[in-house]
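Private note to self, pasted from the team thread so I don't lose it. Backbone tokens:
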């Protein structure tokens, strides 16, 4: 994904003038085995740039298994996946993390993963396991792409914020929404897929024509949309942004609260939960992994309670394990979509390119 929750957190933190969370928490500089890049004591996790974990959590993995994690970051999710496809059979690591349901079919069609049934899968809902028959990938987290709104703007205007996709096309919200390019941005693509799920293949283009007529603004990526165009974010306020609606994440409000000083009692932004598209991120044991045993141990750990409970305030995603406790800050200020839009991975795979091309012809000038 071109922009994920950790990138969002870092950008918000920068806008607020505070220090963001630590990087990937990898052990690259703390272990002799890690500097070698392979070996029985090191397990290499290949990921997009937004993987993050607390150092104590990775140390716990080492204590439990004897393996040290080396994290190899490889750009956004699409770029990272492309690199693994190019090196198929001779992977750069042992486990790949970060392929989501919008790109899953590409990974599976290219036979990137060795099947492995991770320990603890019985704690994960069946609807989050689309490859349950073969266990080529393990679900690790979920996150919802949703429209966020600037609470102050709507209060000042005495205007109710939108709740659904359909609301966004109404006259009272003209020239208020900014979204990301579906061809270049993960949130932008997720939002497009959400509209396909909501209006169907026969209706989504008409819907986007209505959004276009209603003044939707399209920018290249999340950073520009959220921190330069959206009036409700810390960066947007500094930039004197004038768009009170933005495509972001259901977990964006907790980020605004976590990095604010002083910390507010309420989040300055809200979430239109009727505009959400559910993302699921997966990890898999790479075919040809040098440390297959270590890779299997890491997959077990990624869905274990320790890691699952660490994710909400490090990567700003929701755990998939039903027994994982979520921090109060995340639940208090974040939003939950009771019925988020979704599409089957094979449906996305079959139609993604033509949907993006059709969208581009309608919206990108």
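Design output:
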């Amino acid at each position: 994904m071109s922009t994920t929750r950790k990138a969002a957190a870092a950008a918000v933190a920068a806008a607020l003038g505070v220090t963001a969370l630590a990087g990937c928490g990898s052990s690259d500089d703390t272990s002799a085995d890690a500097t070698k890049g392979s070996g029985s004591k090191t397990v290499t996790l290949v990921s997009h740039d937004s993987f993050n974990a607390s150092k104590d959590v990775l140390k716990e993995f080492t204590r439990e298994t004897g393996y040290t994690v080396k994290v190899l970051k490889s750009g956004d999710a699409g770029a990272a996946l492309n690199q693994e496809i190019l090196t198929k059979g001779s992977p750069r690591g042992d486990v790949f993390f970060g392929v989501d349901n919008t790109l899953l079919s590409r990974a599976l069609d290219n036979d990137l993963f060795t099947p492995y049934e991770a320990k603890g899968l019985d704690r994960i809902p069946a609807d989050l396991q689309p490859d349950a028959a073969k266990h080529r990938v393990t679900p690790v987290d979920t996150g919802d792409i949703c429209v966020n709104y600037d609470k102050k703007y709507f209060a000042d205007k005495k205007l109710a914020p939108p709740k659904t996709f359909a609301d966004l096309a109404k006259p009272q919200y003209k020239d208020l929404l900014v979204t990301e390019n579906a061809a270049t941005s993960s949130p932008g693509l997720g939002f497009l897929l959400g509209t396909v799920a909501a209006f169907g293949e026969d209706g989504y283009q008409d819907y986007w024509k209505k959004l276009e007529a209603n003044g939707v603004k399209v920018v290249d990526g999340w950073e520009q949309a959220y921190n330069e165009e959206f009036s409700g974010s810390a960066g947007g306020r500094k930039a004197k942004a004038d768009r009170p609606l933005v495509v972001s994440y259901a977990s964006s409000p907790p980020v605004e609260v976590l990095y604010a000083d002083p910390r507010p009692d309420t989040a300055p932004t809200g979430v239109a939960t009727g505009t959400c598209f559910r993302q699921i991120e997966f990890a898999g044991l790479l075919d040809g992994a040098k440390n297959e045993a270590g890779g299997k141990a890491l997959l077990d750990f990624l869905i274990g309670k320790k890691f699952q409970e660490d994710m909400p305030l490090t990567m700003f995603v929701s755990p998939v394990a039903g027994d994982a406790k979520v921090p109060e800050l995340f639940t208090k200020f974040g939003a939950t979509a009771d019925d988020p839009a979704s599409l089957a991975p094979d449906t996305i795979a079959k139609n993604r390119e033509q949907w993006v091309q059709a969208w581009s012809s309608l919206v990108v000038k």
